[in-house]
Amino acid sequence: MPIKIKNSELTNETISALNILIDTDINAICAFRLSRIIKELTSIVEDKNKMERKIIDRWTKKDEMGNPEPVLDEGGNVVSGAVNITDSDRFKMEMDDFMDYENEIEFEKIDFEDLKLQTAKVRDLLKLEFLFN
Fold it and tell me: What is the tally of structural domains in the chain?
């Protein structure tokens, strides 16, 4: 049965948590399987990030030159990294649909006990619960 993971669960932090897990003292076979899963997930995360930027760009308010209009705070200062969205309802609907999309990875889930972990951070394991039986 393939591993299923929604776009909303795939972040750079997910990949970092996987890398941390591989760097711990775990079963060699599990480490190998996880390294193969990381390669596939990294590609999916890159594609997901590109599509997120496209969705944001599609709904970003632009000036007559096609450049994003700056967002200003109450003092009239430009808010770095912020954008004005032209239609927030449609933007939210498209982004929600995209984040709900479920990716399938053709690897079997791992039995957590097989890792034989001595220690682990709960916050990292929570990001990776989709991997384990």
Answer: 1
